[in-house]
């Protein structure tokens, strides 16, 4: 009987969730080459491909989707078994705040693992911009917050996240139209108070590139809708940009954007085991 290594299955799931081998490798803290080699070896053993490999992203094959469904169940059962032995009495409630761009890209895998390991802990996720979460931490209305570092907001360093200009898919643009070359440049931005917004405006002003705000919203999906429609480009954390959008920078005549510093901030009343364990999980999973 052939064995299915749970560590390799976790790599397969990570690639499926991330949509790329590079981002998948980061999720499981492996090099891209090591991850690719392990998945290739599994495909060879199974005698069938698990992913369709494209130039910018990968998608599971039909066989890959079947294996991924089994893998999720096997990994969840492993985590549940471990939790029942190691953390049987951890219970309570944790409120964590996180902006849209990090909630959609960084937190899902972490929270899924945490819930499997600590099934008796109730998690409440509050999705708000970083600057809106700062007062909630001060008032103890959230226990933890995974946010962009702001002036006056202390937190434990997680990682530096590059920013890029997200642009419409090449296939969606009319022939000959490259919206990032338009002047004034149409941009879609988060609301006032956003570090990403301030970074983008300052970068464009330093580069003396005329621009106009064609859309403003606290919602990441709102920015995506404008970009996908070909009506604007958006300055975003690279981790939040879906694989089907283009990522632009200096080679396209656009200014380089500063990196974002992601931190884990805690309220004064978060000194409780459920909060401690979730904080440990976030730092262990997301640090690069």
Q: How would you portray this structure in words?
A:
Helix content is 42%, strand content 21%. With 288 residues, it is α/β, with parallel strands linked by helices. The strands form four sheets. The protein has a five-stranded mixed β-sheet, with helices on both faces. α8 links the parallel β8 and β9. The radius of gyration is 21 Å and the shape is flat.
Features:
single chain, 288 residues, alpha/beta, five-stranded mixed beta sheet, three-stranded antiparallel beta sheet, 10 helices, 42% helix
Largest pleated sheet: 5 strands, mixed
> Could you tell me how far the N terminus lies from the C terminus, measured between alpha carbons in angstroms?
37 Å
* Widest β-sheet, arrangement of strands: 4-3-5-12-6
Rg over CA atoms: 21 Å
Strand fraction band? 15-25%
Number of helices: 10
Poorly predicted regions: none
Kindly report the oligomeric state of this protein: single chain
Average pLDDT works out at 91
Which structural class fits the helix and strand makeup?
Answer: alpha/beta
**SSE succession:** HHHEEHEHHEHEEEEHEHEEEH
Instruction: Tell me the total number of β-strands.
Output: 12
């Amino acid at each position: 009987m052939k064995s299915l290594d749970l560590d390799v299955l976790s790599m397969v799931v990570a690639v499926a969730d991330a949509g790329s081998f590079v981002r998948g490798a980061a999720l499981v803290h492996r090099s891209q080459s090591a991850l690719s080699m392990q998945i290739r070896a599994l495909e060879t053993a199974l005698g069938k491909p698990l992913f369709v490999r494209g130039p910018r992203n990968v998608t599971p094959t039909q066989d890959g989707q079947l294996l991924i469904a089994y893998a999720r169940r096997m990994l969840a059962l492993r985590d549940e078994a471990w939790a029942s032995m190691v953390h049987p009495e951890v219970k309570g409630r944790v409120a964590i705040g996180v902006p849209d761009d990090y909630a959609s890209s960084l937190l899902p895998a972490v929270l899924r693992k945490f819930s499997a390991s600590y099934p008796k802990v109730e998690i409440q996720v509050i999705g708000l911009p970083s600057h809106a979460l700062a007062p909630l931490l001060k008032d103890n209305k959230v226990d933890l917050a995974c946010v962009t570092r702001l002036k006056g907001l202390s937190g434990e360093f997680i990682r530096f996240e590059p920013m890029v200009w997200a642009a419409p898919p090449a296939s969606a643009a009319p022939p000959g139209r490259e919206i990032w070359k338009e002047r004034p440049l149409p941009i879609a931005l988060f609301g006032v108070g956003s570090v990403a917004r301030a970074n983008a405006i300052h970068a464009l002003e330093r580069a003396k590139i005329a621009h106009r705000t064609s859309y403003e919203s606290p919602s990441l999906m709102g920015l995506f809708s404008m970009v996908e429609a070909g009506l604007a480009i958006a300055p975003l954390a690279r981790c939040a940009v879906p694989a089907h959008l283009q990522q632009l920078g200096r080679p396209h005549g656009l200014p380089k954007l500063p990196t974002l510093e992601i931190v884990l901030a805690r309220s004064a009343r978060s000194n409780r085991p459920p909060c401690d364990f979730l904080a440990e999980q976030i730092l262990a999973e997301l640090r690069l």
